[in-house]
Fold this sequence. Notes:
Chain B: Pfam families: Plug. Chain A is mainly alpha-helical.
Amino acid sequence: MLCILVASCSDAFLDAKPDKALAIPHTLDDLQALLDDVNQQINQTPGFPELFAPEIVVAENGLGRENMDVTNTYLWQRGNLYATISNYDWDWIYEQVLRVNVVLEELKKLDGQNIDVKRYEQIRASASFFRAWHLFHLLITFSPPYNPVTAEVEPGIVLKLEADINEKLGRSSISECYRQIIADLEFSTTALPKTVPVPSRPNLAAAYALLARVYMSMYDYQNVERYAELSLAENNALMDYNALTGRFPDPLQNNNKEVLFYAIPILHAATLTRNAMIDRSHIGLYTSGDLRRELYYSVSNSDIYKMKSTYRGTTLTSFSGLTSSEMYLVCAEAKIRLGKVEDALLLINRLRISRWRTEVPYEPLDELSVDNLLEAVLLERKRELPFRGLAWFDLRRLRNDPQFSETITREYNGEVFTFGPLSDFYHFPVPPSEIMYNPDI
Amino acid sequence: MRNFLLLACCWFFLTTNAQPTQQAMVLTVLTNAGDPIGNASVAVAAMNWSAKTDTMGRCTIPSSVRLPGAKLTIAYIGFRTQSVSIDDITDQYTIRLAPLTENIEEVLVSTGYQVVPKERTTGSYATVDRERLDKVVATDIISKIDGLVPGMLFNRNSTRAITLRGQSTLFSDSNPLIVLDNFPYEGDIMDINPNDVENITVLRDAAAASIWGAQAANGVIVITTIKGKRNQALQIDLRSNIGIAESPNLFYQPKMSTASFVELEQMLFANGFYTATENSIQKSPYTPIVDLLIRKRDDPEQAVTIDREIERLTSIDVRDDLSRYFYRPAVNQQHALNIQGGGERNSFYLSLGYDRNREELIGNSLQRVSINARNTLYFLKDRIRASLGLDLSNRRITNPNIGVHSLTMSGQSKVYPYARLVNDDGGHARLVTNHPFSFIDQAQQQGLLDWSYRPLDEIAYTKRGTHNTLYRVNADVKVKLLDGLEADVLFQYGNNLSRHRNHRPQETYYTRNMINNLTTVNPDGTFNRPIPLGGILGTTTGEVWNYAFRSQLNYNRVLADEHSISALAGFEVRDNQSNSYSNLLYGYDNNLGIGSNVDMMNTYPRYVDARLRERIANNEQMLGLIDRHRSFYGNSSYSFRNRYIAYGSVRLDQSNLFGVRTNQKGVPLWSVGGAYVLSEESFYRSTVLPYLKLKASYGYNGNINKSISAFTTVRYQGTAISTGLPYARIVNPPNPELRWERVKVYNAGLEFRSRNNWINGNIELYRKQGLDLIGEIPYAPSSGVGTFTENYANTKTHGLDVQLSGKTIGRVVQWNSDFMLSLVRDEVTHYLGGTNNFITMSTPIVGRPQYAVFSYPHAGLDPQSGNPVGFVAEEPSQDYAAILQDINENNIIYHGSERATTFGSFRNTIQWKGLVLTANIVYRTGYFYRRNTVSFASVLRASDQHGDYEMRWQQPGDEAFTAIPSMPAVIDANRDNFYANTDVFVEPGDHIRLKDINLAYNFPSDWTGLARIRSASLYLYVNNVGVLWKKSSVNLDPDYPYADYAPPRIFTLGINIKL
């Protein structure tokens, strides 16, 4: 009378998954799928720093519909910044850190089993890259700019390296954070592939490029040069802007060969940025032969310039990943600071000519004074890199430079707001939700 | 068999009788109501003769038995035995037996595993019989028991809709388990025809419910459908009713006047609030008033005409058009026919039901056809009993109208108050929705499709609906094995197929908007349409099916007339699975039934601005769920001389919970109970309370939560269109400490009956402890999660349930009364989370009820600015962010529970001749709710329109008579959050409500006799009659403080005919 249904007598009956789409990650496919969550998940960067772009100008009353955090960030009101207890940049980026830590821990469990070793190592290298990517962006958003004198003692960010959510951690020092990030990146370079099916997955060139950026924020120009060169050795392609028809192609369809790694900022400021006017003086930086002015900006009948197309390609938001074009300028700047002027000129000119209208004769840059060349490369960054997620990065690293630090003035509804080296807003405050629930912070 | 022999005997006697002058006669035995009594015993003691009546109540009395002066006795259980002199009896004699007044109709409780007389139980059961169910008119069966079960509270505001004796879980499913015909029912309640329900038993404590184990923590509602009775003549029952509801009252919630709203828009316009919208690249919409203000600014010559137009709009209130054209009085029809009957060896029941509801939203309706058949066969002298049940339900929902939210302009939360649905010329009016009128008019001039949204047209052209087909097969075979031992095997298969179809032809705004959105105009004037002309068809098909199997051994034995043992043990498995699939077709031609291929890979520029690009939505989705249970259970009960009763039950539940170690997949649960029937004692001589029983029980119920697991779990989301690669997301990080929820339940009670059953009652005291309850705790975001679901709290509930029923049997007037009182007190006894976050008011506090109402302390309004004043470190302050951060469990104000702590009902039935009046009064006290108020942050975006705006502080001195703050100059979410959560807006929920009234007239038996029907009655039923008293002075129904309108009264006229 009892075990009539044989099927139900076995434990297999109770092993069926309650939801087909659920899985306990235990295959390399599962772990790779976790790292492939591209849509505004693992391939993203903090969104509030976008509001520090010096070239955007919000029109009269243009902030009317925005949230308090966006408004206060745009107007540099750091004291009254958070409308609620959360900062979604902090929250969502740490979610990605958890995701990566879960992958790394599950990978350890698979160690020694019968699996595809090469793929295993690649996934582990990718996970390391992603962790470094996210920890680095958290570090440069939420802790003060690097100061070699105080970096060992100044608090950085919470350095989460384990998936255990009950781990009680305070903030590690800035130096320690940098050490971890660099260790993760160097480890990733041991097994990242040279080419990947989609740029949402990191490759070797991307890891080198990120290392170059990291060292740049630490003013270690020797390492900047080293890694930028390594990255360019893997991928030094440049698109000829003459061949582009009106807008930039979709990087995820592998149509933009300059993209080393795809990422976009969290979209808090996206509406404001796409509706904002571009400062006239910024437009003035482009000369008549420069195709970037036509491709990046649209101009209305009343001579107002706005964002037109970015490396994001398919829709109108900034792009915040890694590109070879950026590496040209990074490498050039490092070389200039190290005195290697000719090499730098070669790189800058190669970049500029790919942006030059063929009908207009190109006049190569030939300045040989280091100071003037430094100014030239920084100007070239301003021309090449708007909407590439680098405005905040540059403001921070150049803060203490007497010559190149930047002061921005914004006029809004009759009031004037200024941001400069004496401002206190070079990093975002740790959000109240973290302070409330983390006694160790 | 016996009947046949008897009849043969009767006939034999008849034909061989040697006395030709005396004829055999036919005796018919009926009830007072005229129903035939089959199997009644008819005897002539003096002649040592007895017989039984047949199914028509007839028996032939042989002439040989007609001894002059002998007495003929007619007897049947439950009726008063009658004796007549045989001399008084004519050839065709009818005798009616009267029911025994002393006889208490045995109350049976159904647990879903067995049917037991209530007297023999030790647990807490509440029953609702057919008579009480029939007095209430509703489309679904669960609504019918509202107010009829002690301890059961229908929480109308909440997703946790029904709680039984408080709630013992915090976030797992808190609805009671519904058991239909012995198996758990997880389908839609709307698929059960309420007219098929015989009775309902509610299992409330451990002894009652632990037989259901891990699903029983919230109580169990056992529904038993009609099966038919043996030896019963064919009965036909016809019921029909039609109900008309009042039209919804749209003026229920306080709302800002149109004039105030227009003034607000003018003020915002002057401050430049709409500049960003005007210049937005996606052409965001603005209201007609803003449109007029823009035109006035750009063309000052037109100022006078424009001002007049603004004036005209100010006089409109959209609720007038909504009442006339968007809502209508709902009309519900219900028709049911059922046939039942039975012979010696079978019983059957067949029913047909038809419901048709015209909903209160225009365009929406519901239609349901249900067919049920039950047949039970008895073989081998009742050694084998086999029954088969078939249920079919076909339900069609038509709902093109998705409610008032469809009228809202994008960016606002309510439709602008001067909107019209119908123009003065009678044509359907258009509303601003995604883009301003000026933009769409210009687009139309360029040749794009009409981009206007006309809500009434939208409802008329959209063909949206769901078709649900349910069928269930139930089989049950009981075999008597040995003396007292019976085997019972049950099987059920159910299948529910649901097809949702939403066809929006090109005439609908939805489709024209989708097409226009991606249309580009080529230089030569032709159009590029990535979404082609034609309709859009969305379909979702879902199927839910379940198998259930149970095998059980039942043992019932009485030894030496003193010891009564009953036990059962069994094993059951259940397998529930579901699949669903969605699809979207563009360029759909309904006549040909084909769609077009569209490119869902690439992005296309939007018409509003070519820099914005979008991909065409896919909407394909597949979902598959499997839910499996396997259980072993048993219970046994022993009673000595019907006086001392002991009971125990045990159950092991296993389930395919995901991500749990195999040895944790099961939960063992048990209970014990005892009862002492004091009235059976020899020393008990009370005649006032001839029946008195004391009972107590203790045990564990459980709660399995399927949404979480101990291991890391990820969910595959699909394939990303942008990369072509599959991607997954973490559902939860690992939690090896995860345990299942358990509820420890103690129950003690008293049951009594008074003489003549004038009063009977049930009083119970209970205590429940919820252990290892699962819920969410906030975490520091650097952990990677904002909140985490884990075992985090314990709760304690104790309460009292009282049920008293009384009746009088007068000659002329009869009165029945049911009184129910429940007291529930609950509190959180342990909470794992550290700091309590009161900014969102959502954290439990130890020592307070799980659902409690708190508020922030405040110091009124600032006399200069009208700003609300709070406290920081006990000093008055207007720094709202700091005020909110300063709140902790010591300075927050506690009001009371959010759920009624004392509640019940008082239901009375008065019968006079053929008229029967029933009224049910329901009361709830000891709770609070927080009402809504204006949110200035939303007002400053022209989004909120709450009526408290009219009462805002406007100048110094106003603080003396209003508590609503001034409108601030800038948006300050913290300020809004602060004052909305002060005690100004906390209201007591205490109220007494007249729930329903039923006035019926039973046609007298002479009339019905003429028409050859057994009985007929006509009734008028009114539901949602009204609130008789409420403690709060605010004009809101305490059970519906947030609804757009309180549920309208429904007047139903019905007729029941029994043939």
